[in-house]
Amino acid sequence: MEAIRDWILSICIAAVAASIVKIIAPSGGIQRTMKVISAVFMLCIIISPLIGEVSFNFEKELDKVQIPSSSEFSESIEEQTDIYTKAQLQKLMETYLQKEGIERARISIIMERDEDSRISIIKADVYVEDEFLHLTEKAKQNIEKELGIEIMFYSYNGS
Predict the structure, then answer these.
(1) Which residues pair with 119 in a beta bridge?
(2) Residue 110, H or E segment
(3) Residue 54: its pLDDT value, please?
């Protein structure tokens, strides 16, 4: 008789938990997903006496899961931040160069991180075709003034 009481109590608690989750879940795809999860959870609670006692060693299964360390996670974030920063800086420099009439420039940003993980932009190397080389001095002055980045121009053949 106690087992039936525990089973009914479990169903009631699961129903309350499922109702709370449905209320809290935002509308849209997440709400539909939460409804499905709640329904599966309720179904498992209801049929649990029919299945019998199923033992499951969560600790053993949890040991199999590879969770990245905080240092690996931090390194990954720093790497993604570096990539994003370089890409945004290259777009900004391309805009400045196009204003000066320089097209098809190849921009290389040299950055480093200090011990506090702050990004320092060392310099930017810009490779322009020979036909745009005469426009580089004004562009250099404007970019260094506006962005505060040391910039070096180099010529290439454009092919």
Answers:
(1) 113
(2) strand 106-113
(3) 53
Angle at 111 between CA 99 and CA 79, to 5 degrees: 110
* Rg for the chain, CA atoms, rounded: 30
- Sheet with 106-113, edge to edge strand ranges: 106-113, 119-129, 151-156
User: In this structure, what are the phi and psi dihedrals at residue 53, rounded to the nearest 5 degrees?
Assistant: -80, 120
**Which residues make beta-bridge pairs with 124?**
109, 151
pLDDT single digits (tens) 74-110:
888 888 888 998 999 999 999 989 998 998 899 999 9
Secondary structure (3-state) at 151: strand
Run of H or E residues at 59: helix 58-64
**Element (H or E) spanning 49, and its range?**
helix 29-51
pLDDT attached to residue 69: 73
Q: How far apart are CA 86 and CA 84, in angstroms?
A: 5
Those residues of the chain that have pLDDT short of 50 are none
Taking alpha carbons only, the member of 72, 110, 95 closest to residue 143 is: 95
